[in-house]
């Protein structure tokens, strides 16, 4: 066999693939031939081909170039070669290809004839619906009944994945790979349903894993210790983010969306329930609505017992429990905080099930109806958890004014993550708004006391013993969010410390009793709270190059664009598809930036010394008297902001004076620093505490009520909002009442077939809108108010479907709008001492500020 100069056989050279440079021209040639097909045979085709490939000799009797081979294949597939049947040409290349083509056509004809004959003789066997069902049944049987089939599929998928990730590409091939995959992803993204979401997840995993492989094998600079250390630190942070990404995909890949199990029609079969409401130092006004709502839950009176677990041992709580007719439980030794308080109550009560509510979480009347049915169907069901919903604004919603526009921090966990956990039987206890089986709880020694996140640790112990859990994604209780950023940070520090303690002392990947899915779900919950150090690394990594010229990623700027950008685009796209209803894109990085500095030390200490740390109670029910900046909590943000601004200055200097081949790297790092600066700007905006002096938070709702005037007249109207302290009412159109301020009025509401009259006073009246404040309510009146408002079964049901963010660009715009405006206000504050001396500059500063997007309006409220 004749060989070429390179050692390959001549046919190997002739049949090689098209060179990448020839592909665009060949595509244009095929497009031209498909639009206008020449009718004069091969000569016409070759004449047109010479216009695109003048270097190819199309007149040779045998093919000598892959362009000729591919062109002949296209010709044979479109036109019938007129000269292939001529005598003396039987040995030509077109003849044999044409002969194969006719043989395949004949075989296809016979296949159709045989198929028609079989379908006529056996019509039932060829019914398309029945055939599809049979094939699916066989496939499902083979998949679930044969471990070998599953193992072979997993092994084949793993081998293909490894090949896809580790195959080296040059820059051209990497660009083609990325563009093709991106076009497929954009097409798949338009298809509704969960299966396209899984396809996008696979695309994201492939691209991100390929990026990590490229980072680990091709971008570490070991020519000096500073370069090596800086590169390894950033790579470690990226490995953490990649692992969390994979675990998050696994955890939230499919939402179970469990339905409510109905209760038996005979109420005598319903079990007894103890309701525990732990309290330590929270105000009595916060506790009252929860107790009233718990007492009003639809359950047989003899089988429902409400208990206040007072760990503060206050006389006013004892007196209230006596007046309300509920149980009051205290203990002598106050060990293990909330967990010890509940465990003590378990020892003095005896109901088969225990419902637990934080003192600020107000349950609806239908809570037990929607959660208890599963326990009667499954004896191994130990826990039913419902979402935590907050009717007051958290610090992000209040200080950034995003209520109703941007989902709050907890919606992702309770809207998607817990529903995904439920698929793997891994939904865990969240400390409130849940029902637990007493037998299962006592089998693990009660509520866990080894860590400060006693709730998640308790469910982990029950899962290890083979008990099951369930998550009902239906809001059945609502409570108060933290009032200030400092309280919010303190609460998250406790959560982070507790998860790190569990990871260290009772690691879900070790020990017996858990399935692989449960291990991964618990691992992701614990790994999530270790983001402190990685986030700080991401906020400072570009400074290594800009300030010290250390290469954290030793690669050209084009390589960074071809690998880093696809990794970010695909991860953002897939997460937006999965979580767009529950979290805006890029907002997860905002939350991490705000908390990273404060959870780094507690989580590190908990990993090294898991026995340290104590439970801290989250303050609820407070007020913010006036606008102010919490400078004590902003110190880390200011330091990081100053470092990033210093990096901008050095970056501009390096771009101006440095070598030309580093300009691209400088630009990439400057873009990174700019993004970090905007994130820090949003963190500073959250730390600006806005005035909030309303003691009772209003809930917007439209409820029918009747307004009784002092002269005996009654007008039907509806509520605009309500709270424990008052209401805003809207009168019928065209009706305007002229009433004096503090006029004595009565509002009547119906609940459970009864009408309740509530005395109140007029605060103001304008344009058909009245604001009233309740006065002189008795305990019975307060209970009736809670029953008619907060305790309604549909109190927290959404009136419309959740709106998907649509595109991640909305989240990016939020970061630019809020971060940019916050930085501008900080600049004005810093420049104020200098501009006061020169009044002519004030107009210039104001004009520049007007060009930036406006910061959300300040939240103003009144008592």
Can you summarize this structure?
It is an enzyme of class 2 (transferase). Its cofactor is Mg(2+). This protein is an alpha+beta fold.
Describe the model:
A seven-stranded mixed beta sheet has the order 3-2-1-4-8-6-9, with helices on both faces. Helix 12 (315-324) links the parallel strand 2 (304-310) and strand 3 (327-329). With 863 residues, it is α+β, with helices and mostly antiparallel strands. It catalyses: [(1->4)-beta-D-glucosyl](n) + UDP-alpha-D-glucose = [(1->4)-beta-D-glucosyl](n+1) + UDP + H(+).
The side-by-side strand order for the widest beta sheet comes to: 3-2-1-4-8-6-9
Q: Tell me the span between the first and last alpha carbons.
A: 96 Å
**Major beta-sheet overview:** 7 strands, mixed
Number of helices: 29
Basic shape: globular
Indicate the proportion of strand residues.
5-15%
Class per helix and strand makeup: alpha+beta
| Uncertain runs | 1-17, 79-92, 850-863
Beta-strand segment tally: 19
| Rg (C-alpha, Å) | 35 Å
Helix content: 40-55%
What descriptive keywords fit this protein?
863 residues; alpha+beta; 19 strands; globular; disordered N terminus; disordered C terminus; cellulose synthase (UDP-forming) activity; glycosyltransferase
SSE layout:
Blueprint: H1 10-14, H2 23-35, H3 42-50, H4 66-78, H5 93-121, H6 128-145, H7 147-166, H8 171-189, H9 194-218, H10 225-251, E1 273-279, H11 284-295, E2 304-310, H12 315-324, E3 327-329, H13 337-348, E4 353-356, E5 362-363, H14 367-371, H15 373-377, E6 381-385, E7 389-390, H16 395-400, H17 411-423, E8 434-437, H18 438-443, H19 454-464, E9 468-471, E10 477-479, H20 485-505, H21 516-528, H22 532-548, H23 557-579, H24 587-608, E11 628-629, H25 631-657, H26 663-686, E12 688-689, E13 699-700, E14 704-708, E15 714-722, E16 726-730, E17 744-751, E18 754-766, E19 769-774, H27 779-788, H28 809-837, H29 840-851
Parallel strand pairs: 1-2, 1-4, 2-3, 6-9, 7-10
Antiparallel strand pairs: 4-8, 5-10, 6-8, 11-12, 13-15, 14-15, 14-17, 15-16, 16-19, 17-18, 18-19
Helix pairs in contact: 4-5, 7-9, 8-9, 8-23, 9-10, 9-23, 10-21, 10-22, 11-12, 20-21, 20-24, 22-24, 22-25, 22-26, 24-26, 25-26, 26-28, 28-29
């Amino acid at each position: 066999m004749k060989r070429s100069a390179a050692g390959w056989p001549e046919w190997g050279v002739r049949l090689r693939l098209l060179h990448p440079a020839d592909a665009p021209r060949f595509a244009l040639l095929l497009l031209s031939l498909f639009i206008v097909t020449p009718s004069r045979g091969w000569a016409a085709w070759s004449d047109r081909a010479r216009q695109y490939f003048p270097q190819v000799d199309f007149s040779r009797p045998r093919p000598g170039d892959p362009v000729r081979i591919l062109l002949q294949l296209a010709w044979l597939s479109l036109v019938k070669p007129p000269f292939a049947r001529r005598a003396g040409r039987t040995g030509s290349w077109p003849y044999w290809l044409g002969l194969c083509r006719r043989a395949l056509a004949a075989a296809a004809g016979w296949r159709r004839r045989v198929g028609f004959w079989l379908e006529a003789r056996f019509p039932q066997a060829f019914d398309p619906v029945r055939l599809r069902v049979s094939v699916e049944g066989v496939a499902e049987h083979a998949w679930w009944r044969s471990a070998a089939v599953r193992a072979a599929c997993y092994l084949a998928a793993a081998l293909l994945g490894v090949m896809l990730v580790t195959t080296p590409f040059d820059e051209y091939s990497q660009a083609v790979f990325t563009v093709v995959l991106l076009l497929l992803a954009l097409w798949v993204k338009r298809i509704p349903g969960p299966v396209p979401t899984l396809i996008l997840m696979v695309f994201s995993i492939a691209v991100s894993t390929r990026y990590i492989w490229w980072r680990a094998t091709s971008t570490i600079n070991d020519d000096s210790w500073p370069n090596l250390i800086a590169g390894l630190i950033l790579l470690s942070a990226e490995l953490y983010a990649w692992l969390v990404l994979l675990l998050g995909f696994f955890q939230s890949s499919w939402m179970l969306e469990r339905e409510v199990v109905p209760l038996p029609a005979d109420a005598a079969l319903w079990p007894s329930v103890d309701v525990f409401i732990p309290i330590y130092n929270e105000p009595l006004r916060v506790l009252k609505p929860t107790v009233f709502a718990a007492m009003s839950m639809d359950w047989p009176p003899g089988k429902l017992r409400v208990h206040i677990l007072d760990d503060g041992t206050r006389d006013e709580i004892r007196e209230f429990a006596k007046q309300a007719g509920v149980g009051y439980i205290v203990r002598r030794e106050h060990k293990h905080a909330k967990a010890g308080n509940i465990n003590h109550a378990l020892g003095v009560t005896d109901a088969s099930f225990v419902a637990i509510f934080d003192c600020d979480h107000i349950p609806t009347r239908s809570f037990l109806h929607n959660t208890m049915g599963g326990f009667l169907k499954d004896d191994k069901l130990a826990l039913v958890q419902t979402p935590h919903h907050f009717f007051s604004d958290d610090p992000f919603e209040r200080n950034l004014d995003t209520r109703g526009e941007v989902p709050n921090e907890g919606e992702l966990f309770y809207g998607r993550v817990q529903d995904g956990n439920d698929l793997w039987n891994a939904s865990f206890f969240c400390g409130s708004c849940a029902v637990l089986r007493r037998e299962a709880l006592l089998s693990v020694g009660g509520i866990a006391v080894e860590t400060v996140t006693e709730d998640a640790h308790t469910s982990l112990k029950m899962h290890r013993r083979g008990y099951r859990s369930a998550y009902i994604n239906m809001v059945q209780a609502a409570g108060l969010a933290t009032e200030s950023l400092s309280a919010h940070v303190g609460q998250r520090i406790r959560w982070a410390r507790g998860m790190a303690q569990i990871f260290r002392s009772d690691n879900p990947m070790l020990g017996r009793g858990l399935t692989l899915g449960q291990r991964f779900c618990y691992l992701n919950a614990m790994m999530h709270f270790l983001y402190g150090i990685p986030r700080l690394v991401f906020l400072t990594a570009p400074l290594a190059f800009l300030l010290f010229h250390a290469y954290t990623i030793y690669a050209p700027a084009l390589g960074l664009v071809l690998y880093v950008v696809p990794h970010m685009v695909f991860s953002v796209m897939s997460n937006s598809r999965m979580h767009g209803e529950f979290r805006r894109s890029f907002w997860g990085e905002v939350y991490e930036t705000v908390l990273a500095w404060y959870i780094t030390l507690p989580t590190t200490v908990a990993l090294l010394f898991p026995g340290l740390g104590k439970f801290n109670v989250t303050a609820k029910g407070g007020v913010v008297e006036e606008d102010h900046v919490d400078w004590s909590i902003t110190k880390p943000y200011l330091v990081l902001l100053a470092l990033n601004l210093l990096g901008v200055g050095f970056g501009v200097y390096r771009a101006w004076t440095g070598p030309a081949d580093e300009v691209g790297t400088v630009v990439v790092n400057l873009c990174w620093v700019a993004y970090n600066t905007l994130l820090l700007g949003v963190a500073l905006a959250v730390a600006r505490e806005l005035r909030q002096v309303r003691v009772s938070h209003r809930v917007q709702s439209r409820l029918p009520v009747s307004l009784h005037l002092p002269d005996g007249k009654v007008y039907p109207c509806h509520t605009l909002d309500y709270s424990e302290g008052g209401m805003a009412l809207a009168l019928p159109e065209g009706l305007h009442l002229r009433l004096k301020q503090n006029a004595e009025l009565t509002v009547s509401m119906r609940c459970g077939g009864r009408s309740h009259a509530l005395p109140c006073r007029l605060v103001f009246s304008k344009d058909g809108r009245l604001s009233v404040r309740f006065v002189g309510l008795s305990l019975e009146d307060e209970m009736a108010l809670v029953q008619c408002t907060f305790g309604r079964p549909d109190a927290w049901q959404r009136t419309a479907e959740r709106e998907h963010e649509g595109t991640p660009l909305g989240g990016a715009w939020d970061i630019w709008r809020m971060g940019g405006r916050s930085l501008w206000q900080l600049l004005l504050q810093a420049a104020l001492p200098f501009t006061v001396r020169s009044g002519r500059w004030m107009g210039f500063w104001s004009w520049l500020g007007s060009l930036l997007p406006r910061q959300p309006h300040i939240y103003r409220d009144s008592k």
